[in-house]
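# step 3/5: fold
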Amino acid sequence: MSNDLSAAAIATVKATVPALRVHGLAITTRMYDRLFEDPAIKALFNQEHHGPGGKQPKALAMAVVAYAENIDNLGALSAAVEKIAERHVESHIQPEHYVVVASALLGAISDVLGEAATPQILEAWGQAYWRLAGILQGRETELREDARAA
């Protein structure tokens, strides 16, 4: 998928920021519920960071809001992207996992927002997700290659 976003997708993602501030934690919690239906995916995650009082759904919700707010200024997120890429490499996240996460995230948005999750919003978030996934996958490949060369 393309790493470029249309102006309409950027505007739509930015317009979802207020809803994400209100419903972001519910969306990320639901996303992890969907992901963890697959035991192999669940095994990739430290379960102490999930469930009641777990910090990961909240951290991801905050990251999603930051991404939406800065969708047109990704340089502001470079330190966070680097940290995520490093964590993904440490956790053995592979390119095929991104497809599963995309499905879980878009499904969670739909589940939580219901009718407010219009096809336009889901399409824009699909584009935004794959843009970020492409950036992360590129950096993760570089990190893996650097590790092999070292």
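# step 4/5: annotate
The domain at 7-149 is CATH 1.10.490.10 (Globin-like).
# step 5/5: archive (pending)
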